[in-house]
Each structure stands twice: as structure tokens, then as C-alpha cells.
Amino acid sequence: MKDHAPNSWEARAEAHSLYGFTDLPSVRERGTVVLTHGEGPYVVDTNGKRYLDANAGLWNMIAGFDHKGLAEAAKAQYDRFPGYHAFFGRMSDQTVALSEKLVEVSPFPRGKVFYTNSGSEANDTMVKMLWFLNRAEDRPQARKILTRWNGYHGVTVVSASMTGKPYNSVFGLPLEGFLHLGCPHYWRYGAEGETEAEFTARLAQELEDVIAREGADTIAGFFAEPVMGAGGVIPPSAGYFQAIQPILKKHGIPLIADEVICGFGRTGNTWGCQTYDFVPDAIISSKALTAGYFPMGAVILGPELTDRLQAAIDPIEEFPHGFTASGHPVGCAVALKAIDVVMNEGLMDMVRAGAPRMEAGLREIAKHPNIGELRGIGYMWALEAVKNREGKVPFDGKLSVSERIANTCTDHGLICRPLGQSIVLCPPFTLTDAQMDEMFEKLDAALRKVFAEVG
Ligand code: PLP
User: Fold this and answer.
1) What's residue 156's pLDDT?
2) Is the separation of the CB atoms in 259 and 153 below 8 Å?
3) Cα–Cα distance measured from residue 17 to residue 371, given in angstroms and rounded to the nearest whole number
4) Residue 1 — very low, low, confident or very high, per pLDDT cuts 50/70/90?
């Protein structure tokens, strides 16, 4: 147990705060890091130590931690109109402007937007919309939701049920009717001798089989991240979306792109679905939507779902759903500024320009024999640690290799995230070349140290 001075920030944190998604033995040994502020892509703790945050918070702080324009947009809106809802036929002018903008930058020729406070709530909202319109269309049995193993969609009861992670069993989740299909990670799940095209075809066949088994008329939707993020940065196997979308279309099952991580530039395009060349039926957005400067999520419906939802609303003249802070004017003003920063002030161009450099630097590091795979795109990458590269043999879980690497990085002032046996890097888009080199150097040193200990 790490000792802290009585009444220090660390001791106070440990006395009164609950920790989400935290390895508590690690905190007991190493102590809590309490942060006071940020400078560009760095965060600073109560002892004045600086950390290059190669996770951009939780993928969301794409403009770094001290973007003046975003803070000023929030301040100006707080001064003008600090809060409102979107109920009873009233909403703020900023909400109107953001919906217009989101439809304009979406891949849809037309559509409509509904706001939430988080990505989890946006997924829940989308599921409720599908259940609502299926009931109105006299198909109340069409409730099942298809997602994939390793997919991450959030933590509320419904979005946790969608998430394909075994840890949700501690809550007695998933709920009935949430089905998980195969993860499109060829390197890990491709069978011996199977080509990538054959692997993709196998996943498409699995989808056909599940639809046949369950009955297409019982399924409400298929949700997928274009690149799985919290599953360990897993880009889809080649041709994956091109293989599954026609099957979903044939059976009338909407494809919902969960763009909470990919949306607004992380893959080098506005949307991950553009990078992987498909147009979904709706988009779930959050995180970079406000560059992390305000909690907000959004459901963006494409034309068909917009019309079906409207037709379902008409007979009862109401969509009985919404949050107190749905369409919060400050969130909307910040999102409008964030979209401008990403699309017009060059933030997305920085990802496009920096991605080859990021990949090249990580490829050098990935030459280490204990790295089995480097995978990613744009500014989202993962290095997977293995005991044996040839056989893709993982390290014994008890060694906590990725946690040790991440902890060593933290000691040296670099924040990166252990996910399974992978180390994930998803920095702010504003990273300079020198900061990227700092990330490479610190990561490489930590990998070498830990692999020398466990290798
Ligand atoms: N969907 C994806 C793809 C995510 O990565 C996340 C969070 O990481 C969520 C949904 C949930 O978002 P939130 O944490 O804002 O509820």
C-alpha cells in the first residue's frame, strides 16, 4: 500500500472516491494520480509531474487540453444561455445549428439528430428508437440486437448488454436478446491456413446462420464500431462491411455505426464508415464530437430511419424519451466549434499527415520479438505483446505484461492504455513531431525493460 501524506490529494481521493475500470491492486501499490491541468497533449499532476497523454483522455481530447477556442466557445455560451433542454417544442438556437451541421457532415443526404450526455446513452436511445418503431410497425417481436465479441458500446444496462466483454457477467448481463457475433480480427481468430478473404466470408456466413436461427423478424438492428476501439483497436478484416451489409439489407436489419471513437477524424476521415467505405443506416457519435470539452452524445439517423421514426411518432404525436441535458446549448456551442476545428482548422489534416509517421515509428518498435502484431489506422494503434511471435502465444495473464508496460510508461511521463495484452495509443491530433518522438522513445524503453524482465 503506497503511503500518502495525510490530507494529500492522493489520500483524499482514496478515502472518498470510487474508481471506474481501475486495477485496484495497482493503485494500492502505486497510488492515485491526481491531475490539476493540461498543457497541449500533456496532463500535469498535483506534484507538478507532466505526462504525455497518448490516450487523449479516453480517445476524446483530440485538440489537447488547452485549446483556447473551445474554452472560449463554452464561456461565450455560458454567458449567453447557460443551459436548456429540448422538450415541449423548445430548444436552444445552438441545438438547431448543431443538428443542421451534423446532418450536413454526415454521409446521409438528409436525416435527424437526437442528443444525449454520453455514448452509452446514445446507443440506448438508438435501441429504444428501433424498439419503438418496430412496435409501431406491428412487429413487436423485432427486439434482438446483434453486436460482436470485443465490441464496446458502453456501460448502461442496454449498452453494456451490447458490449461483447465477459466482465459484464458480474452484473448478470447481457440482458436476454443481445447476441454477440464473431470479432473480425483476422490475426487472432483466423483459422490455420485460412486466408483473410475466407475468414471474412466465414463471419458473413455466421451472420446468415444467426439470422436464420433467430428469425430475421425478431432482430431490430446490428451495431458495429468501424474500428473496434476498447476491444483493443481492431480494424475489420478486409471486405468485412462489404460482406455483411448486403446480408443485413436483404433481411431488412438496420446497420448502426457506433462512431463514438472513430467519428470526427480518428481514422483520417470524418467518419470511420467513410474510411471503410460503407453507408450505415444511423450513426452514434460522442467523444470527439465536443473534443471532450463537454459531455455529449448524438444519434444521427439516416433518411430511412428518420422517416420510419416519424411515422411511428405520428399516431401518438410524441417520442417519449429525452434527457434533461439533451441538446444542452453549451454542449452544442462547443460541438459546433469542435467540428470547425476538426474540419476547417486542420485537425483532421494533422491526422492524415501524421498517420504515416506514427505507423512508421510504431513499426520500428514492433520489430521487438515480443510484439506479435501492430494494428491500427490514422491515430488509433495497438501493439499486441506475445510470449512467442510464431505461435502468437500470449503471456501468462498473471504476469500482467501490458499493465506493467503501461505503468513503466507512466513512471516515465507517458500515459498509454493496457487493453488485454495490447498497448493502445490514440493521442490528441495536435501532437507535434517532437512529441510523437517522445512517445516512441518512452514506449520503446518501457517495452524493452518489461520484456527483459518477463521475456
Ligand atoms: N461506444 C464506443 C465505441 C465507445 O468507445 C464508448 C466509450 O468508450 C461508448 C460507446 C460509450 O461512451 P460513454 O463512455 O460516453 O458512455
Assistant:
1) 98
2) no
3) 36
4) low
CB < 8 Å & 24+ apart, contacts of 73-76: 73/333, 73/334, 73/336, 73/337, 74/293, 74/294, 74/330, 74/333, 74/334, 76/333
> What is residue 139's three-state secondary structure?
coil
- Is the ipTM beyond the 0.95 threshold? yes
CA distances from 333 to 126, 137, 178 (A): 23, 36, 35
What is the CATH code for 71-345? 3.40.640.10
In the predicted model, what is the mean pLDDT of the chain? 97
Q: Give yes or no for residue 117 CB within 6 A of ligand 1.
A: no
What is the per-residue pLDDT across 193-238, written as a single tens digit (0 to 9) for each?
999 999 999 999 999 999 999 999 999 999 999 999 999 999 999 9
Pairing relationship of beta strands 417-419 and 422-425 according to DSSP bridges: antiparallel
Q: Where are the alpha helices (DSSP H) in 17-156?
A: 24-30, 56-59, 68-80, 93-105, 119-136
Which triple of cell numbers denotes residue 413? Answer: 511521463
Q: Which fold has domain 33-66+347-454?
A: Aspartate Aminotransferase, domain 1 (3.90.1150)
CA distance 244 to 254: 11
User: Is the pTM here over 0.95, yes or no?
Assistant: yes
Residue to mutate, 286, 323, 424, ligand 1, most ligand atoms under 8 Å from C-beta: 286
In angstroms, what is the span from residue 136 Cα to ligand 1's centroid?
29
Cα dist from 276 to 19, 238, 279, 290, 437, whole Å: 35, 9, 9, 23, 29
* Closest approach atom of ligand 1 to CA 258: 3
pLDDT of residue 24: 87
Whole-number pLDDT of residue 67: 98
Backbone φ, ψ for residue 449 (5° rounding): -65, -50
Where are the chain's structural domains? 33-66+347-454, 71-345
